[in-house]
């Protein structure tokens, strides 16, 4: 920023000063006009410089704001991704526990079913064995009764000694 004053008026002012005389009013007015022009020029340049500084500072603030928004967005995205990962991990762990519990419960139920089936089959076999044994016993008793009745017909005296002995022997076999 330079003062733009006419050389002629400055020279005249210096010349009058050197003579130590009072300057002429025209010279004072010229000097005052030159100084006022210089002040206006400095004011305009200062305003322009301040306006440029304001614009630069606004641009810097906007750039800083954008940078901070990007950092915040990235930090937020990272936090959300970490929470999503944590949720997914917990879900998978719970799912695995549920599957393990379900598998253990199924194995327990299958074991109970197998045990019940075996118990049923054992009881059924036991019942069949008892029925079969009862049938054999009844057949044996029927055969014994037939034999007793056959031997009583052979013997002349139904209550005789031989009949009693055979009966005892037949009862001992059963």
Number of domains: 1
Helical fraction equals over 70%
The radius of gyration computed from the alpha-carbon positions, rounded to a whole number of angstroms, is: 65 Å
Give the overall average pLDDT: 86
User: What fraction strand?
Assistant: under 5%
Termini Cα gap: 144 Å
Total helical elements: 3
Q: Per the principal axes of the C-alpha atoms, what is the gross shape?
A: rod-shaped
Ranges where pLDDT stays below 50 over 5 or more residues in a row are none
Order of helices and strands: HHH
Main beta-sheet strand count, sense and barrel state = none
Keywords: Coiled coil
Question: What does this entry look like structurally?
Answer:
The chain is mostly helical. The protein has one domain. Helices cover 90% and strands 0% of the residues. It contains 3 helices and no strands. The longest helix is centred in the middle third of the chain and has 130 residues. The chain is rod-shaped and about 195 Å long. The mean pLDDT is 86. Keywords: Coiled coil.
């Amino acid at each position: 920023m330079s003062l733009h004053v006419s050389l002629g008026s400055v020279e005249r002012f210096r010349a009058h000063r050197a003579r130590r005389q009072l300057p002429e009013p025209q010279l004072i007015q010229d000097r005052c006009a030159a100084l006022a022009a210089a002040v206006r020029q400095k004011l305009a340049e200062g305003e322009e410089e301040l306006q440029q500084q304001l614009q630069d500072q606004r641009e810097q603030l906007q750039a800083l704001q954008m940078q901070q928004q990007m950092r915040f967005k990235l930090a937020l995205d990272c936090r959300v991704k970490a929470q999503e990962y944590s949720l997914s991990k917990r879900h998978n762990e719970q799912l695995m526990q549920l599957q393990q519990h379900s598998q253990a419960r199924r194995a327990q139920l299958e074991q109970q079913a197998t045990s019940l089936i075996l118990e049923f089959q054992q009881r059924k076999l036991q019942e069949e064995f008892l029925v079969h044994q009862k049938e054999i016993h009844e057949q044996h008793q029927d055969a014994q009764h037939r034999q007793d009745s056959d031997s009583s017909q052979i013997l002349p005296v139904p209550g005789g000694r031989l009949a009693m002995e055979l009966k005892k022997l037949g009862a001992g076999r059963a």
